[in-house]
Amino acid sequence: MSTVMERPDPTATTARRRLPGWARGALWAVVAIGVLSTASYLTDMPILTSSDTSQTALRLGLPILLAALGGLWAERAGVMNIGLEGMMILGTWGSAWGAYYGGVWVGLAAGILFGLLGGLLHAVAVVTFNVNHIVSGVAINLLGLGVAKYLATLVFEPISGNPRESPSVEKFDTYSATFLSDWLGALEDEQRVVLSDVAGLLRGLVTHVSPLAMIALLLVPASYFILWRTRFGLRLRSCGESPVAAESLGVNVYLHKYIAVAASGGFAGMGGASLVLLQGGADYLENQVNGRGYIGLAAMIFGNYRPSGLLGGAALFGYADGLQLSGGGAAVLALCYGAVLLLAIIVVLQLIRRHWWAAAGGVAGAVVLYWIYWTSDELPSDLIPYTPHFVTIIVLAVAAQRLRVPKAIGKQYRRGEDS
Fold this sequence. Notes:
The protein has about 425 residues and is mostly helical. The protein has helices at about 10-15, 20-45, 50-75, 85-100, 105-130, 135-160, 180-190, 195-205, 210-230, 230-240, 245-250, 255-275, 290-300, 305-350, 355-375, 385-400.
């Protein structure tokens, strides 16, 4: 009797050797800090790793993080939600209205409520009436902008005299880990290579932190636990993979989609509220969301529809936005130099994996960025405010190569029908 030797499955071996998601994220965080530290030293731009930049990045990254969480909940349930922008706009108006009449916590609750109402409207359109998800999302964005403008004219103009902004509203208090902040500040001032850079970045994360920032950051592991470690989360994600199969196993697909999209709107409304209620931000202003709902979607895609990944995406976009505010064109130009260093690392990794075309693309990108850095003393001031948007385009182009999208996302579903 002959026996046939089975070849080991190389895919299975690779899967066993892959680092867990949290370890890969931590590794890339170390790489990013190393790149920023090196770029800061070589370009003589300590603003790249200063505590002011880190603190500003945290404040500006929060609305993006919350919008990304909103997108995660909806799209894991199979509902494409490009209406996050409109839900955030509703959240900005609701939070300003609530904070003016009832204080900061009432403002936060009102912002969440208004965003949730926008999410429910999207759910009615796409879940109950099977409207195309993109069409409904665009309509929500236009409706959110129009409703906020009408309500601001109706409610705020008699008080502030300006239909485009609210009167001054209460902001969240901030708290600092004083001992840790002072120690890190002393290390930052010494300007030691790497050590002072790490101290500066960490100091910005423990200084003048608001309760809303703490809540938003806790929502990331909470979302992971609910969606990946509970029966409810398994059922919700099954609706985004195969709603027909989920229905055959007794899952109420409509209910789970409604809950997911309503939660999505609540997160987006909370993100809008953060623009109004955080120290350093403006009161309600018309068009103050400025595309952050779309950037939140980009952060979610960058994170491959995972909570830990979208946290990294929000940090990236928040940092780019914070840097252009803290350091201007010279700092953004230094960031281009850092991007060249990062691309060099990525090219080496791609060559090791024998991904020749990806390596060639990385080399081309590095050459272009280095040419911009070498030929420019400072980037044009008109382009600087759009730094996060340029980062969004680049990230989407790179992230699209490795996406694992829910299979039933954006698809119309009727109870009892076969897929």
